Amino acid sequence: MTRRIAVLGAGSWGTALANLAARTGAEVALWARDADHIAEMRATRANDRRLPGVRLADGLTPTADLAAAVKAQAVLAVVPAQAMRDMARKLRPLLAGGIPVVACAKGIERGTGAFMSEIFAQELPDAPYAILSGPSFAEDVGKGLPTAVTLAAQDLALAERLARLLQAPWFRLYHSDDVRGVEIGGAAKNVLAIASGVAAGRGLGASAGAALVARGFAELTRFGRAFGARPETLMGLSGLGDLVLTCGSAQSRNFALGLALGRGEEPQGKLAEGAFTAAILVDKARARGVDMPIAQAVDDILGRRLDVTEAIEALLTRPFKAEI
After folding, report:
1. Which residues are known catalytic residues?
2. Residues contacting residue 16 through CB under 8 Å, at least 6 positions apart
């Protein structure tokens, strides 16, 4: 039986995931709303706007027809977190009953404070949903370099089925039923990666960088515990694994944003997910009594309440405490 998969969003990550599935023999519809972009991809068999240097596999079809695209065994929603609700609303009248939708964005919705799973539960009540997250750069996946991520659904059997549907020899999926833990790791690490980029841009050194990752993970763990995430999930690919990846490479938009801020430069290009998530992450942490000073410092910098020097000083002059 032919596998049919829809990927909604022709950015770098959506293109990488669509190409991955097509290279394993699936028929893949890669949806985008820009007709010129679609025509370009069809003509060149590449997406040089978003993922240059990667040829599109033969089984991948770029399309602007959303209704036709989602006639599939699974739908991967690969749009920014702040656009996920609008995407879900577009899908509601088009999805056949029982077709699972996988959120491939890492963030928390501003204004509502909703996680991606909560958006799906509200907007697509009849569709099973899952979350895909973990340490993965689109360029690596596009090139077929070894990558491992986590796919979580409340129904563990669904998570396992979806993982098998998307599995490739170079792309390993671990399945889980800890949906909240997987999506918290993806959302929080984006904010913490901005802090790591700031430290690197300010030239604070490798020791400070390591301390930020360690203390950042402590914040992520406290936040996750407050929202019911399992410790082993936070210690896994979607938590610690993704944090380590994005806190150490300018391939990460979040790290690159912090790097520019640390150097006193204006950020260039598309704004990183962590910039949208920082304020709501801090608000949700405060509401649960969770101490997140690094995330708070990032939010203060982005909100222009503190400059980089003041934020660093505020972190370094915090009261002495035990390491917990």
Report:
1. 189
2. 51, 54, 138, 139, 141, 142
